[in-house]
Amino acid sequence: MVWPNGRICPACGYKHSIAVAGRDKGAYRARPGLYQCSNGDCHFQFTVTTRTPLHATKLRLSVWLKAMWLILQSDKGLSSVRLAEALGVSQPTAWRMGHALRLMVSRDHKMGGTVEIDHFYFGAQPKKHPEDPSPGRGRKGRKKTRKTAVLAMVQRPEDTVRGTPAGDARAAVVPGLVLS
Ligand SMILES: [Zn+2]
User: Fold this and answer.
1) Separation of 137 CA from ligand 1 center, angstroms?
2) Distance 135 CA to ligand 1 centre (A)
3) Local confidence pLDDT in tens for the 180 residues of the chain
């Protein structure tokens, strides 16, 4: 995802780089996933997290991936206290992780071109609860759904030829969405 069209140097944008992982560099051994820019004026050394919010993290990437999954699958967001519990890290660490991940998904991802937007209902009807009021009836006497209302935006792909990357998409649960 960081390099959808092949590895590029984050310092100069050069498209050629070499893996230095595993090579003996004198006194130390280069860590896995380390690359060096092949541009003679640059020679910048980088990993997949360089110049992203995950740069210089002391946590394993698997902990970050677990955090991403936990945040994405929670409807109403996840408190840093609960994230900390689930990951086995301290609450301040969990708070910083949540902040970094939100920063990462929000930047450089503005949608453009033709964007389609629509709503849909997702999942099953929630279980009946005796204290809940009746959902009543909607248009044409149909029973109103109590499924989760979701708003989705999809950017039209540049082409319809097979193999064209799919358009960027966003979806969010809309609490209290009312449709006439
Ligand atoms: Zn470079």
Assistant:
1) 62
2) 60
3) 788 889 999 999 999 999 886 655 565 666 778 899 999 999 999 988 888 777 777 888 889 889 988 988 887 778 999 999 999 999 999 998 888 887 777 665 677 788 899 888 877 776 666 666 555 555 555 556 677 888 888 888 878 888 877 788 888 888 776 654
CA of 76 relative to ligand 1 center, distance in Å: 41
Q: In angstroms, what is the C-alpha Rg of the chain? A: 23
Alpha-carbon distance values, 102 to 11, 39, 73, 106, 173 (Å): 23, 33, 14, 6, 17
- Vertex 46: Cα angle to 44 and 47 (nearest 5): 170
Identity of the amino acid at 98: G
Ranges of each domain in the chain: 1-51, 61-106, 115-173
CA of 68 to the centre of ligand 1 (A): 29
Q: What is the 15 CA–ligand 1 centroid distance (Å)?
A: 8
pTM above 0.85, yes or no: no
